[in-house]
Every structure is written in C-alpha cells, then in structure tokens.
Amino acid sequence: MRVLIAEDEMDLNTILNMKLTDAGYSVDSCYDGKEAILYLKSADYDLVLLDINMPGADGFAVLDSLRKAGKKTPVLFLTARDSISDRVRGLDAGANDYLVKPFSLEELMARIRVLTRTAHGSSDNVLTAADLTLDIASHEVRRAGVLIELSAKEYQLLQYLLYNKGIVLSREKIENHIWNFDYEGGTNVVDVYISYLRKKIDGNHSQKLIRTVRGVGYVLREE
Asked: Residues with Cβ < 8 Å from 86, sequence gap 6 or more?
C-alpha cells in the first residue's frame, strides 16, 4: 500500500520511512504542510501519517484540504499534543486515529494495519481468494497451504489485487498505488511484476487467479 508521511522532525520522518519501507509499503515523505497538500493532490494514498505541528500549514489544514477534495483516505495524526480537547478536535476534523509522541513503532504498525484493512472492508489480517491466503501481520503468503516467497513489490502488488478482488484495475492505477514518486523504472513495470507474480501464485495450479482484461488491466478473480 502507498503511504504519505508528513512529519517535520527529520529523524522521526527517516525512522518511519525506513520502518514502513521494510514492512513492504511504498512511501513518500515530506516535512511541511504545504508540500503535504501538493503530494495529496498529485496521488492517491492508502494512508497518511500526519503531524499536527508543521511549518507551512499545520496538520488540521492539510486534513481539511484532503477532506474538501472528497478523499476518504485514512489519516493517522502523530502529535505531541496529548490533551483530550486536542484529540477530540483531531478526530472531529476527520482524522481516523490519533497517536501521541513518543509512541511504539509496533503499536503504530498495528494501527496502520487496522486502518488499511478497515478502509478496504476487511475484518481481519488475512486476505483470501480460493486457496490463496495473505497474512498482513506476518507477511506470509500461501497457496494450498504451501508458503510462497515474494519480493517486497510482489507482495505489495498481490495485497493490492486482493484488496480489490473482482475489480479490474488499470495499469496506471496499479502503478500509482505500488510505486512512489522516486521510481524511475520502465513503462512496462506493471506487466513485468504481474508476470513474476503469476509464476509464483498461479504456477502449475489449474485454477488461475490473476487474469488479464485486454485493453484495460488486471483483476484477481476466484471463479
């Protein structure tokens, strides 16, 4: 999933970026509110980690801009403000969750999993399609009970397909969700990774889950 980190504390921003990248997320990051607003206008994110006290525009202004644009992207506020009134203001402004600094990175990752699965209508950490399972918490992928080793990008792609099971996704939409602004690869990157994923997921199985919709894109279907 693609995440935006808007946090002006450079050390914390770097730590969060490394943690999320290591966990298989595609990450963009910035250090002020005005830049965050530009990022959010330029791409669709699955989650925003948003500091409240930032230069340029504070977190409330960034959130207001996002919601006025009609986007329901989950937002998790990161802030040193720990009063009840500040928490209420943040949640009433349209934030989905609120985490007070300093916080545990493991708690942050758990909250991120909750927010992303809730946004996609999933009730737990295990995504399924036929005999395929993907465990968001452990990052284990299995087909017919057999563990499948995936690269970080293959895992992200499969997770995105599973979250959108039965929905045809264009190449552009897939690329925008899986790769960040720093990506400088080829134009056929989605086709390449779909090919990698098919070999590992469908392989010799008679039931093929990843389908091509000619002229449109790809879809993961059980039937």
From this structure: 52, 79
Closest CA to 48 of 19, 15, 18, 71: 71
In angstroms, the CA 53 to CA 156 distance is: 31
Q: Which residues pair with 141 in a beta bridge?
A: 134, 148
Q: Which one of 3.40.50.2300, 3.40.50.1970, 3.20.20.150, 3.40.50.1000 gives the CATH number of domain 2-119?
A: 3.40.50.2300
Q: Which stretches of the chain score pLDDT less than 70?
A: 122-123, 182-187
- Considering the chain, tell me which residue range(s) the CATH 3.40.50.2300 domain(s) occupy: 2-119
Tokens of 184: 């400088």
Token pair belonging to 163: 């979250």
Burial class (CB in 10 A: 0-12, 13-18, 19+), 184: exposed
Span between the terminal Cα atoms of the chain, in Å: 25
The domain made up of 126-220 has a fold known as Arc Repressor Mutant, subunit A (1.10.10)
Helix then strand then coil, in percent of the chain rounded to 5, is 40, 20, 40
List, for residues 169-203, the tens digit of each pLDDT value. Answer: 999 889 888 877 766 656 688 999 999 999 999 99
